[in-house]
Amino acid sequence: MSPAPDNLFENLRLELRRGCLALAVLAQLRQEHYGYTLRKALAQQGLAIDESTLYPLLRRLETQGLLASQWREEDKRNKRFYRLSPEGQRMLSMLLDEWNAINTAVSNIL
Amino acid sequence: MDPMDLFERYLQAVRKYLPRQRQDDIVAELRANLEAQRDEREAELGRPLTDGEMIDWLKELGPPMQMAARYQPPRYLIGPAIFPLYWQILRLALIWVSIAYAVGTVTRTFTEQRGPEWIAHALFGYPGTLLTAAAWVSLVFVVLEFVSERYPEKCPAFFATSNHWSPTSLPAVEKEPALEGKPRTLTTAAAEFVAGFAVLVWLLLVPRYPFLILGPGAAYLHSSPLEFAPVLAWFYWAVVGLHAFQWAWQGYNLLAEKWRTKHLLQRLASKALGVTPIAILIGAPGQIYLTRNPAFTGALPDGMQVATINHYIFVSCVVLAFIVIIDFAVDLWKASNAARRHQFRTVL
């Protein structure tokens, strides 16, 4: 059975966003953030990410060596701060090139 | 109720759904993120959250189990990497189990002279056997998934595409059969109609002239130790009726100039009706097909037992019915696939 049009749109929208999220998170973490402020910073720039998507993504990117994390006290509270690792910087640069190429191609097609 | 108590209870509940070795780390990070959110809410309100507001907020966050799941990668009993192989093996296993079950049941029915109750019991046991086989195959793949996820470095790429695969090893393109079957000429259709008539006449003459079917053996029919039970008459008329129906449809096709192709529905209907004569035999009272001939006063030949003969006839009918039904189901499946492909090509 094929999904209802609304569901289909939602599925395609999520599929479209999924690839962009890793790029957005890596780019945002050129500056150090902890989970909550990262989510807030992304939302302020128009890319709201659900907690259920962001936290697993952060952990996956860290496991892949693209992020480095550190526990530190801030405002009398321990927080886990994430930032881009050297490998993450190299990957971000490559992904940005790819992003620009796709963006140009899609713009041409449209 | 203390709102902070609710918050701590929430974190404690989340902890219970996390893997033991990562509980402290994840709960600490979750606490930091949630405390930041709570501080922001309280800053906006200019006061601490009340009990009701805390309950609403925790409800927004979702049940503890759901929250814990967010901090973990997606987990599968059988993951997408090995699922296609699992599906293929499962289908093969079910086919082979079905064949083995059918062969085993038929063999035991013949060798152990089992009755209708045992056969019915065996048929009802079939779904359970399939479920057991499926459960074992699934269990093996669940273990494979677990091992390959936990110890990827120790597992060779079992399921990776083989390097030895080559496009030239693919089977040749199969010829698509026409939905309505192979086109026929008028001569073929007319010959079939004439032959059908001849067979119908032959069938109708058999009761009066048994030699048409029994040959020289017909001369010994009256002195035979056995005679046909009344159910054989019903069987005979079902065969005649079925043949007459097919012959009439052939005639209609000729008159309506539809002889070029044999209609799909006609083929399927003929096969479906083919079960009727066999069903009559299976439903015979007491499964009696042959009885002692009252005119025969002598003793039965050595080793001949009427009950044994009737039993074998009954078992043969069950096997035959099974084959006919499977054949019909396969034809129905093929027809449905062909119709879908035909519809797809029409759309294109």
Index terms:
heterodimer; A: 110 residues; alpha+beta; Arc Repressor Mutant, subunit A; three-stranded antiparallel sheet; 4 helices; 3 strands; 65% helix; globular; B: 348 residues; mainly alpha; 3 domains; 2 strands; 66% helix
Topology, element by element:
The complex is a heterodimer of chains A (110) and B (348).
Chain A: H1 5-28, E1 33-34, H2 35-44, H3 51-63, E2 67-74, E3 77-84, H4 86-109
Antiparallel strand pairs in A: 1-3, 2-3
Chain B: H1 3-16, H2 23-45, H3 51-61, H4 64-70, H5 83-111, H6 116-150, H7 186-205, H8 211-214, E1 226-228, H9 231-255, H10 264-273, H11 275-282, E2 290-292, H12 306-347
End-to-end Cα distance of chain A, whole Å, is 31 Å
Low-pLDDT regions of chain A? none
What general form of chain B does the structure show? elongated
Mean pLDDT of chain A, as a whole number? 89
Largest interface in this structure:
A-B, 15 and 14 residues
Give the biggest beta sheet of chain A. 3 strands, antiparallel
- Assigned CATH class of chain A: Mainly Alpha
The helix count of chain B comes to 12
Strand content range of chain A: 15-25%
Number of domains of chain A: 1
